[in-house]
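Methods — Computational structure assignment.
A single polypeptide chain was analysed. Its primary sequence is given first, followed by the predicted tertiary structure written as C-alpha cells.
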Amino acid sequence: MLKLQRYLARLIAPVFLLQALSTEAQTFQPSTTSPTASTPYPTVSCESLSEQTMGVRQRLDEYSRLVRGRQCIVLNADPTVDTARLISQIPENTVILLSSSTPQGVPPSPSVNPVTGKTPVSYFIDSEIILKAGQDIIGAADKGFEIVTTLSTGFKEQFMIRHGNRSDFHFGETRDNHIKHITFQPSEPDGHRPIKSIILAYCYNHRLIVANNLFYLPDWYGVELDCRKSLDASADDERTGPGLQFADNMIIGETFSAGPHNITSLYGINIILPAIYNQSQKIAIVDNRFQGRMADVGKISLGAGTSIDIFRNTIDIDNSGGTHLDLRGQQTQKGGFILTGITDTGAKPPRFNLAGNQIRVTDTAISIEALIALALACNFLQAVNPWQHAQLKNVTALNPLPLAGECEKCVSPTVISASISPPTYCHIVNSWSAINNSTAAPLSGMTNFVGTFFFDFTHHCPTVISICPTVTIIVTKSSSDRISTVSSVDATTISTALGVMASLAVLLNL
C-alpha cells in the first residue's frame, strides 16, 4: 500500500510543498519551482501566519513564546520529496512546522498506529537532516493524526538527524534547537533498519531540547550526544558547552532480524561527555517512558565535576535472555542505566541525581563504572539485581534531601498539599523489589561506597507523605570498608526518620 501511494504521488503534480503567507493578500502562495541550494525557501513571520490547519494553529498557540519574533515555515507531507533536502534549504533560526496536510490525491496511511491510536502522516528522508543553529522542527498534526519521519528506500546514511560539530563548539551559535511532537520510525518500507542513531549531536554551545516525541529504536541508539572535546564549563558563563533536555518522550525497543542475527535495540539514549568539566544544570532526562526490548535504557559518561538530572522516568523493559547482540553478533551489557564516571581519584567525580524514577528491568537496574557521586531519592527499583558495580572504586552517596521537590512532582495534588516543609528523610526513601525469584537485597552488587542510601521503612514513614511507590523495608549505611544493615525486624525501636538517622550514627561507631 505504501509503495502504491508513493507511485500515485509521482503521477500527480504536487500542489505545493510549503505554505507561505503573503503579507499583502493574506492567502497561501503555492511553490511553483523547486528551490536550489542558492535559492532557499522563503520564510514568513510566525505572527503573520493565518488560515492554517487546526494542528498548526494549535502549535503556534502552544509555543507562542518560542515563535514570537521569529520566522516560520509550514511543510506538507509529500512522499515524492526528500524532507531532509528541503530542510537543508531553510535558513537558520527558523521554526519548521510539519503539518498533516498532504498533496491532492495522496491520502494519509490507511492504518492506525496501535501505540498512539492515530493515523500516520509520513515525511520521507533520503539523507540525514542536518539541523542548523536555532532551527526548530515541530510536528503540527491535526487531531487524530501523527507526524512520522521515516526513511526512503535506499537510505544510506547512519543517522536521521545530525547536529553540532566534532571538533568545534561554535561558541557564537547560542540559540537553542527544539525537536518536538514527531514519531521517528527508522525503517525502510521493507522493515530494514539500517541506521545507527535517530538523533546524533556532537559538540555545540546551547541546549538541544528533544521533547514529546515517539522513538522506535534502531539497531544502536535512539538519541546520542557524543562530544569528546575538552571544556571547563565553569570558566565562562557564555561557553558552557552542549546541553540536552530529553523530556516527555516515549522510547520503544524491539527485536528484529538483521542478517543472520536477531538484533535487539541497544540503548534508548547514549551520552558521552568525558571531557566536559564542571557543567551543571545542562543535561536532563526527565519524565520519559522506556518500554519494550532493549539492552539498556541509557549509557551516560560524564567528566569531572559535571552533573546530570534523571527524574521521574518510567522504565519497563525486557533485557533478559541471550538475544541482546550488537551488529558484530556479540553479547552486550544489559541493565537500566549505565553510569560512568572518572578514574582520577584526585578530581571531583561527576554527580548523578536520580529522583522519582520507576525502573523495572529483567536484569540489572543500575550499573556503575568508575568514580561517581550519586544522589538517590524516591526511586522504585524492580529487577533481578539492583546494582552492578564491578570495579572496586568508591561511590559517594550524596545527601538526597535537595531532590525532595522532584519527588513531590510525581504524586497526586492531595499528597502534595499534605506534604511537610522542610522535607524529612521519609520524603526521599527509595524502594527495592526483587523479581524472578531473586533474593537480592537493596544494595546487592554495590561493592564499595561511602555515605547513606535510604530505602523505605514503610511502617515508620507516614503514608500521607509517601512520595513514590514503595514496597521494601530496608535502610542501609555503609563505610568504605564495611556495610551495616538495619532491617525491619531489627528496627522496632525506630519511630521517626530522625530516629533512623540516630541509629545509623550509632552503627558507624560499632
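Note: The two ends are 73 Å apart (CA to CA).
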